[in-house]
């Protein structure tokens, strides 16, 4: 990115990303699972935009895909994946890179 002119418009770039990025551990996975890797792995694989869907529930922003819930891990009783969980992965990734 450092070699791209500052005059370049965002619409002129091709930025790799993932669709429904947080659906690795989604309930109803045969229908709604679009990804088989977590956010950390997607970032390590050079995806640079994340498609996320948020809903406010009990003062928490949780990730969903339509009416299916995105989960923290593959356990049947796993808690919902939150925006804080996602940001933790993003911050960890950014902290591990020399920018």
UniProtKB/TrEMBL annotation:
It comes from the Bacteria. GO terms for biological process: lipid metabolic process. Residues 1-10 have a biased composition (Basic and acidic residues). GO terms for molecular function: phosphoric diester hydrolase activity. Gene3D superfamilies: Phosphatidylinositol (PI) phosphodiesterase. Residues 1-21 are annotated as: Disordered. PANTHER family: PTHR13593, SI:DKEY-266F7.9 (PTHR13593:SF113). This is Phosphatidylinositol diacylglycerol-lyase. It comes from Holdemanella biformis. The lineage of its organism: Bacteria, Bacillati, Bacillota, Erysipelotrichia, Erysipelotrichales.
